[in-house]
Amino acid sequence: MWKRFIHSYLFYSFRRDPVAIVSFVIFMILVCMSIAAPLIAPHNPYDTATIDIMDSEMPPSWLDGGEPRFLMGTDTQGRDMLSTMLYGMRISVFIGCGAVLLQALIGIAVGLISGYAGGKLDAFLMRLADIQLSFSTLMVAILISAIFQLAFGVGQYEDMAVPLLVVIIGLAEWPQYARTVRASVLGEKKKEYVEAARVIGLPPLRIMCRHILPNTLSPVLVISTVQIANAVMSEAALSFLGLGMPVTKPSLGSLINAGFEYIFSGLWWITFFPGLLLVLFVVVVNLLGDWLRDVLNPKLYKG
């Protein structure tokens, strides 16, 4: 398996593309830092016993008034910005990956069934996808969060914010997968190996999952890389508008939101550093997605 990958065109193309290498290295560093946040963060932003309100609004350590123990300064609650960013990125990455996984599960299932079955079922599922696309992520988020807060209260919403955002973003973006998989299935189901599987009497579910699905994974992989960046941006936008993560559970979006009202009062670092980290993460993921799209496009293959 490893030898096949080493000698594959994918790895060959990766080695010859410095942008892809740099993007992948930065991406892995950010992901590893977010996963290891409890181990490498100087402070724990969730431990109120270690937070002193007298340390609030301190500038970064290299500016006048800064302290060495707060490298990137503190926010209005006295939390270390570097620590809250590491923990916040951890939550943002978790929500992004979870939402993309939910999108993929729903979209692949709908796309497979729609493309393979055809007819009225195909038309119904695609019209359902069109209806879903007409609703923005923000609209779905406002509706679901309002219903949830009305039914269970704000306190319960804060406790369930992470899985709720995964569901909201996942339900809002699944048509991207469904349309892509359906288009691939329409091209694959007419080929000889599918006809042969039908002739020997294999059930449709097995044909879809064991024979057609593996041949549709290349575009799914490309979409997933881009959708991770989109999901992280959606979480940041929702948190910035107050519909996502609460301030007590920092994500990159909620950190940007928490410091936005102070950005013109001189406390620029509260918003600037989380915003810079968010932009860096989204850019490297999009660059990897563009490289992967070009490599997996057979029309561009030169080998």
Break the fold down into its secondary structure elements and pairings.
Blueprint: H1 2-6, H2 9-15, H3 18-35, H4 37-40, H5 81-117, H6 119-134, H7 137-152, H8 154-159, H9 161-173, H10 175-188, H11 192-199, H12 204-212, H13 217-240, H14 252-260, H15 269-295
Helix pairs in contact: 3-5, 3-15, 5-6, 5-9, 5-10, 5-13, 5-14, 7-9, 9-13, 10-13, 11-12, 13-14, 13-15, 14-15
Kindly describe this structure.
One of its GO terms (biological process) is transmembrane transport. It is found in: Cell membrane. Keywords: Cell membrane, Membrane, Transmembrane, Transmembrane helix, Transport. The protein has 303 residues and is mostly helical. It has a single domain (83-300), classed as MetI-like fold, CATH 1.10.3720.10. The protein has helices at residues 2-6, 9-15, 18-35, 37-40, 81-117, 119-134, 137-152, 154-159, 161-173, 175-188, 192-199, 204-212, 217-240, 252-260, 269-295. The relative contact order is 0.13.
User: Could you estimate the helical fraction of the residues in percent?
Assistant: over 70%
The H-and-E topology, N to C, reads as HHHHHHHHHHHHHHH
User: Describe the biggest sheet?
Assistant: none
CATH class: Mainly Alpha
The number of helices is 15
Rg (C-alpha, Å): 23 Å
CATH topology: MetI-like fold
What shape does the CA trace take? Answer: globular
CATH architecture descriptor: Orthogonal Bundle
| Whole-number tally of structural domains | 1
Strand content: under 5%
Number of strands: 0
Quote the average pLDDT. Answer: 81
Structural class: mainly alpha
CATH homologous superfamily (4th level) name: MetI-like
Q: Low-confidence parts, pLDDT < 50 over ≥5 residues?
A: none
Distance between the termini: 21 Å
